[in-house]
């Protein structure tokens, strides 16, 4: 794996100090490895915390933000680069293009949207990059249970969980991602695997 990590994270801080602490530790770990940070360009929430930390430690940080948001107060003004794009879809495409791996920190609907899109892209073979969850204070336990629920009800394969590297320890998470080998996902479509057609 090479040296740019895309971060998906909340634009709020959440109600547990472990979330911000995890963002700081991950920023330290990314900077220690000399990896660059790609993220949504905000100056607030967990997004702002990790960007500030990587910059503070001498790392490079690239923000990608739709033009309408840049005009507001959320845009970080001290990044290595701030790229303006036309839309939220263009933002996600650009972040994928620039990144060699992805990590979700605690966040809300926007974070889940970004995480599940990049996970879906891995599932159908659009990319083969590692995807990590920084599971600070067990934040993603329920999400992992939801994915397992979809597997138990045969809407996904068990191998889909192998697309995710999960840890509450940033150094361990980055090590898992550096060693990531894309899993053999098998046949996504159970009916086709059984020689049946749907209606």
UniProtKB/TrEMBL annotation:
GO terms for molecular function: hydrolase activity, hydrolyzing N-glycosyl compounds. One of its GO terms (cellular component) is cytosol. InterPro entries: LOG, LOG_fam. The lineage of its organism: Bacteria, Bacillati, Bacillota, Bacilli, Bacillales. It comes from the Bacteria. Belongs to the LOG family. It holds the Pfam family Lysine_decarbox. Keywords: Cytokinin biosynthesis, Hydrolase. Signal peptide: none annotated. Its EC number is 3.2.2.n1. This is Cytokinin riboside 5'-monophosphate phosphoribohydrolase. It comes from Sporolactobacillus shoreae. GO terms for biological process: cytokinin biosynthetic process.
């Amino acid at each position: 794996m090479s040296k740019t990590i895309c971060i998906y994270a909340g634009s709020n801080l959440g109600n547990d100090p472990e979330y911000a602490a995890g963002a700081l530790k991950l920023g330290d770990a990314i900077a220690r490895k000399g990896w660059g940070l790609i993220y949504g360009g905000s100056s607030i929430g967990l997004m702002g915390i990790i960007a500030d930390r990587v910059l503070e430690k001498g790392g490079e940080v690239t923000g990608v933000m739709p033009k309408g948001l840049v005009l507001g107060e959320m845009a970080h003004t001290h990044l290595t680069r701030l790229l303006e794009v036309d839309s939220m879809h263009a933002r996600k495409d650009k972040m994928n293009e620039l990144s060699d791996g992805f990590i979700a920190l605690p966040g809300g609907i926007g974070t889940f949207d970004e995480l599940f899109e990049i996970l879906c892209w891995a599932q159908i073979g659009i990319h083969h990059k590692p995807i990590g969850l920084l599971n600070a204070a067990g934040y993603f336990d329920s999400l992992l249970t939801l994915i397992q629920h979809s597997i138990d009800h045969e809407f996904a394969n068990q191998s889909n969980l192998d697309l995710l590297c999960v840890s509450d320890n940033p150094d361990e998470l980055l090590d898992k991602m550096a060693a990531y080998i894309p899993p053999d996902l098998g046949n996504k479509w159970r009916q086709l695997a059984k020689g049946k057609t749907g209606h």
